[in-house]
Write the structure tokens for this entry.
Amino acid sequence: MAVRTRLPTLALHRSRQTKECHDTHDTTTEAPGDDPAAVGARMLNAEDNRLLTGVGPDTPMGRMLRGYWHPVLRSARLEADGAPVRVGLLGQKFVAFRVTHGEVGFVDEACPHRCTSLALARNEDNGLRCIFHGWKIDVTGRVVDVPTEPRACRAAFAESVPRPRYHVRESGGIVWVCLQQGQPPAFPDFEFHALPESQRETRIAVMHCNWVQAMESVLDSAHLGLLHQGQLQRAPADASMADHVRTVFGNTQQDTAPQLEVEPQGYGFREGALRQLPDGRRYVQIREFVAPYYSLLPAAPTVARRFIVASVPIDDEWTAQWFIHFSLDGPLTPELLAERWQHAPENPDNFYENPGDIGNLWGQDREAMRNGHFSGFPGRHIFHEDFIVQEAMGPIVDRSREYLSSSDRVIIHTRRQLLRHARAHAAGAPAWGLGPQAPASLARIRAGSAYLKPGQDWREIDTHAAVEPQPASAEALAPHGETTTT
Ligand code: FES
Ligand SMILES: [Fe+2]
């Protein structure tokens, strides 16, 4: 992932039904000694927060995270014999490069000799040559030439230079890396890997907050009809996009207190976010969560496009959030992409460039707020609204100050599982989602959404079934002026 230069009217609650209060008691947690969190409970003490958020090599979470594959760069960033690209991952600095024959190398940024940056190195003849003393490193990270040693002992000396060896793989237009020494885990073979290039695209946003903070905003279904309600004031020309916007933002605005249900799975969990609509129907959004940070997001029931969002830690305070966008039924056309990414900077390696900060409140527009725009960011991409509220918590939010509500149930579940698995991993257990219960493949795991039939359980819904036309509810279909994307 790119290392950012900074390296380092309230929605109307129109629900007409009376709902039972639901608490945040996480019935799915298996951790002994976990206190059920009742509504209003405080969540984490400072020690747990440090365990949750620390990603360095000497931390329990950091050690667990080193056992996964991570997306680190779009493949298109690397040219054969082209410039190496700096990558921050899990609190360490690396460079990625493509050698003459086309393979990708991934090595520590610090030269193994005296640690100058290999981002400055020459990339030629199938390796990086450091410009300081000319040591050469091949695509596997092995030192293969040491011109500063007498000729007679060069080869033996080069062989003696220690080197970590990282696993590298290219798939789906992405360079993936696992830092674990020894055998890597199973590759995350999500269904988009098998799609033609015309049906997938990837964009990245680099944000100044910890990876869990970034991930939790994606896991937070309740904010859709609140923070993002301004989306209903815009109108995409593309019919499927317009339907998606009306459905997702219309329905979530009509019931801002979704009932959240979590089903643990070998790879993570499934979440059903259930909303009662004024016309009597129930609408469910089914998310798949794949450990440690993948959120598979549904679109409207009629829309065959999906997002996988991955919150990849650069270090404790910076995150590269990946948006892997794919279509199950045809190319992502330029027109659709233009509409989808309206108001986002064009740079696919950071569509959150120069976003502002707390000092200028990210350019929030009070005039627009007075005129009815809820968040005050009418000219920003919808995801920017998420990034701004995440960053506004500070780089690592103090979770001991939170006061959680029933809408935080999925976040509570995820935190508990991360903490439980990091502790278990430190004691020798497999990482979360990589144990014996993990499926052999992730290719069939797909998010979805639907209008439930009377008495239907969301767990019965086949997210692989063909999409069927289903109107958004009458209120969502009422004219709102403009509309847009998720
Ligand atoms: S620092 Fe790279 S060769 Fe000396
Ligand atoms: Fe959001």
Q: What stands out?
A: The chain has two domains: 46-58+187-477, 70-178.
